[in-house]
């Protein structure tokens, strides 16, 4: 018999599941995150669920309201635009910094991530694509020698999942393969060209924000969690 996972490992698993479900926009802003429901769904104690919700609140992804419980956080369209404005600036600085020092192993790791994105595009798996596209930018940020810049983007980018609302199918992610174009320019040492494409790319995503899009409130929290394929084995 395999030994049962430690409470910390169990907490990490549930945290990762919920974190990814929010970043994939499977759990939409304002979804109520009921402790009892989640404890039941994941087969863990409510104590673990409370700890996980606390961590997600620390990430800015969950909002805790006195006497009402926890909800997936939401940001306004204006806040989403501010995030993209900040992201564009930091992205440009990171690209300029990493272009001269990028190793072939680092390039290969980023190309592998893009290959997974292509596969998600082909399979029309838009939730997965949403998460992988963010991961591309966070992986690029992680290569920065300035750990604060990397940390800043790793905190900032997941928050874009909380904006109402994106038309992922019509984003330029699949059609133009801009991540590959950015990486090609970095590989060729053309930092300014890479910055220009990255700015266009983020402009395109920002333009896909649609304040008038409505959400589908019919699907319950548990159904939404069941619909997504867990990325980690328990
Ligand atoms: Zn991107």
Structure description:
This protein is mainly α. It has 2 domains: 7-74 and 215-227, Orthogonal Bundle (Arc Repressor Mutant, subunit A), CATH 1.10.10; 77-207, Four Helix Bundle (Hemerythrin (Met), subunit A). Helix content is 62%, strand content 4%. It is built from 11 helices and 3 strands. It has helices at residues 7-23, 35-42, 46-58, 77-98, 104-122, 126-142, 147-156, 172-176, 178-187, 191-207, 221-227; strands at 32-33, 62-65, 69-72. A hairpin with a 3-residue loop joins strand 2 (62-65) and strand 3. Helix 1 (7-23) crosses helix 3 and helix 5 packs antiparallel against helix 9 (178-187). The longest helix is centred in the middle third of the chain and has 22 residues, at 77-98. The mean pLDDT is 86. The protein binds zinc ion. Residues 133, 136-137, 179, 201 line the site of zinc ion. Zinc ion is lined by residues 133, 136-137, 179, 201. This is GntR family transcriptional regulator. Residues 8-75 form the HTH gntR-type domain. InterPro entries: GntR_C, TF_FadR/GntR_C, Tscrpt_reg_HTH_GntR, WH-like_DNA-bd_sf, WH_DNA-bd_sf. Keywords: DNA-binding, Transcription, Transcription regulation.
């Amino acid at each position: 018999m395999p030994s049962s996972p430690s409470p910390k490992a169990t907490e990490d698993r549930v945290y990762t599941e919920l974190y990814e479900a929010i970043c994939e926009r499977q759990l939409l802003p304002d979804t109520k995150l009921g402790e009892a429901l989640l404890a039941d769904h994941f087969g863990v104690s409510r104590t673990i669920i409370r700890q996980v919700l606390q961590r997600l609140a620390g990430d800015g992804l969950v909002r805790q309201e006195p006497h009402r419980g926890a909800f997936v956080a939401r940001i306004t369209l204006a806040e989403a635009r501010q995030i993209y404005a900040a992201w564009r600036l930091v992205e440009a600085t990171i690209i300029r910094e990493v272009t001269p020092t990028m190793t072939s192993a680092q390039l290969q790791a980023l190309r592998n991530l893009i290959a997974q994105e292509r596969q998600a595009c082909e399979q029309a798996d838009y939730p997965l694509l949403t998460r992988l596209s963010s991961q591309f930018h966070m992986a690029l940020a992680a290569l920065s020698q300035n750990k604060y810049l990397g940390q800043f983007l790793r905190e900032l980018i997941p928050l874009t999942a909380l904006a109402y609302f994106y038309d992922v199918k019509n984003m330029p992610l699949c059609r133009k393969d801009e991540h590959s174009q950015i990486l090609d320019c970095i590989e060729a040492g053309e930092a300014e060209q890479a910055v220009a494409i990255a700015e266009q790319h983020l402009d395109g995503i920002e333009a896909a924000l649609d304040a008038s899009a409505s959400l589908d409130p019919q699907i319950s929290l548990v159904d939404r969690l069941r619909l997504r394929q867990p990325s980690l084995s328990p």
